[in-house]
Amino acid sequence: MKIFARAHQLPPRLAAAAIILHSGLGKTHVDEQNAAATHGMAAAAYPFLGRMDPVAFVRLLSRSEIALGVALAAPFVPSLLAGAAVTGFAAGLLGLYLRTPGMREEGSLRPSAQGLAVAKDVWLLGIGLGLVIEELCERDHH
């Protein structure tokens, strides 16, 4: 596993890092009403999250997003690790999109107006998978 990201991997890593870090920092001082809304949407898609306190959930989400953003931005974090982490994060977001009523047009994968913001996170999945696939293919060539 390469220790430093290759130069061509930095633009997508930094783009994803900026968005994820911004999202995490925006949740650091969440109020109870916004925490309840965020938690409610997540718990509806992933019922096991319903047992968590909404404020504690959003604080954990915030810290996770900040950690992921920093890992993506740090070129010394191996791309396989950063890619796997962003792939998992994006898969969770897309699961939210697929499981939340009203995010998709009836009987379709096409996003509704409400779901467009979450559906756009498919680019994060593409970045993560691209990093993982490249690193795994590099391994096979050595």
From TrEMBL:
Keywords: Membrane, Transmembrane, Transmembrane helix. The chain crosses the membrane at residues 66-98. It comes from the Bacteria. This is DoxX family membrane protein. It comes from Nonomuraea maheshkhaliensis.
